[in-house]
Design goal:
The chain has 261 residues and is an alpha/beta fold. 32% of the residues lie in helices and 20% in strands. The protein has six helices and ten strands. The strands form two sheets. Strands 1, 2, 3, 4, 5, 6, 8 and 9 form an eight-stranded mixed beta sheet that branches. It is globular and about 45 Å long. The relative contact order is 0.20.
């Protein structure tokens, strides 16, 4: 009887907050990019804000590039610990490098005859641990893949990145932001940066799409892996923990603070 009531209540809450779900708002320009001229808002996106540009001819000329370690802009993570910031920066590095390595030849070290990618995290909003824990329990009684998050406890990530040619001119640029939804497939987390860490993968995917020429085919992973300096690609442990508990646990994903290079 209790489970039926909880299930009915959770589904009712899901239906109510679904009506209140709103689009992720664009983040103000941080000043990190060498230029914001020509950035265009991607249409048809609700869960994420994307503003990007690419010089198609210049991007076609880029084959080799070096991915610089990401940085945090001033005031971007109020109240977030240094260790948690390092976790997010390390995960952004991993995801950006992995996606770009499928479209370009990524170098393990900078080179004068290669392009470079600069990335900055411009906002980290914390995930509410108490609300996430309660959401995980409630979601146990909700059938299907859609879950409910407690309003006011959802985190966010915003970041900017640019591809610079050998001469230093901007080939492509991206300003991106994502806030967790109260209804959807965003996994709750007991980590203060649980949402930000999960969104790093989405950001990396967009970097690859925004920077690579339209006809650039996805290629096999190089051996040795040029992104190994940022951590392993495959992390099956995290999937198992999510499946059993309904909670995102960064430690099971192999996410660790990265030494800034």
């Amino acid at each position: 009887m209790t489970q039926r009531l909880l299930r009915a209540g959770a589904v009712s809450v899901a239906a109510t907050v679904a009506l209140a779900a709103c689009q992720t708002a664009p983040q103000a320009n941080s000043g990190f990019l060498s230029s914001y001229e020509g950035l265009e808002t991607m249409a048809g996106t609700l869960r994420v804000s994307v503003r990007d540009r690419r010089d198609e001819a210049a991007a076609q000329a880029v084959e080799r590039l070096y991915v610089e370690p990401s940085v945090l802009t001033e005031g971007a993570a109020p109240g977030i610990s240094a260790d948690d910031v390092a976790l997010v920066l390390g995960e952004v590095d991993r995801q950006v490098c992995y996606e770009l390595s499928e479209r370009f030849t990524v170098l393990a070290e900078p080179a004068a005859d290669a392009a470079r990618v600069r990335t900055a995290v411009t906002r980290i909003s914390p995930t509410g641990a108490v609300g996430s824990g309660a959401s995980a329990v409630a979601n146990h009684f909700i059938p299907g893949p859609i879950g409910v998050r407690a309003p006011g406890t959802t985190g966010a990530l915003a970041a900017e990145a640019e591809l610079l040619s050998m001469s230093g001119s901007q080939v492509a640029a991206l300003a991106w932001a994502r806030t967790a939804n109260v209804v959807g497939t965003d996994t709750p987390s007991l980590s203060a940066v649980g949402d930000a860490l999960q969104f790093a993968e989405v950001f990396g995917d967009q970097v690859g799409d925004s920077f690579a020429p339209e006809d650039r085919e996805v290629r096999p992973i190089a051996d040795p892996d040029p992104c190994a300096r940022f951590g392993p690609r495959d992390q099956p442990g995290g999937f198992l923990v999510r499946a059993v508990t309904g909670v995102y646990v960064p430690e099971t994903q192999g996410v660790r603070p990265q030494e800034r290079q």
